[in-house]
Amino acid sequence: MRKYMFTGVYSSASWARLVQGSDDRATAFGTLLRSLGGSLDAIYWTAGNGEVRAIAELPDALAAKAVVTATVKTGAFSTVEVEELLSEDQLRDTLVLARSVGAFYEPPGASAVRPAPVTGD
């Protein structure tokens, strides 16, 4: 299973409904995740701007995108973003892989600053 972090910003209408009668948002989100073969690790709300952040396990990026789409379509959020999280081991593997393919990528503009080949007269 892969780990994902979801960040959402509730709409003002959602905040108004929550103030009137809050419900268990962790259970609601967990139910959505389980329907896609996933689970909820943790859910938090930021104190400053009221964002909601959730760490979840899901089978793949398609399931993660389905979560975003399902939540956005309700109009309850002004934005929802998702990022896949890497473990320490996955980061290490990524760095090893990047080193092995580094010679195959030319940075933007490299051809403009590359010295012209020397030709014989």
Number of helices: 5
Number of domains as seen in the coordinates: 1
What is the annotated CATH architecture? 2-Layer Sandwich
- Largest β-sheet summary: 4 strands, antiparallel
CATH superfamily: Dimeric alpha+beta barrel
Oligomer: single chain
Which class in CATH terms? Alpha Beta
Quote the CATH topology: Alpha-Beta Plaits
End-to-end separation in angstroms reads 62 Å
Neighbour order of strands in the largest sheet: 2-3-1-4
User: Strand share of the residues?
Assistant: 25-35%
Total beta strand runs: 4
SSE arrangement, N to C: EHHEEHEHH
* General shape: elongated
In the predicted model, the low-confidence regions spanning at least 5 consecutive residues are none
C-alpha Rg, in Å? 22 Å
Task: Kindly summarize this structure in a few lines.
This protein has five helices and four strands. It is α+β, with helices and mostly antiparallel strands and about 120 residues long.
Word description of this protein:
With 121 residues, the chain is of the alpha+beta class. Helices cover 41% and strands 27% of the residues. Strand 2 (39-45) and strand 3 (51-58) form a beta hairpin. The relative contact order is 0.21.
List keywords for this structure.
about 120 residues, alpha+beta, Alpha-Beta Plaits, four-stranded antiparallel beta sheet
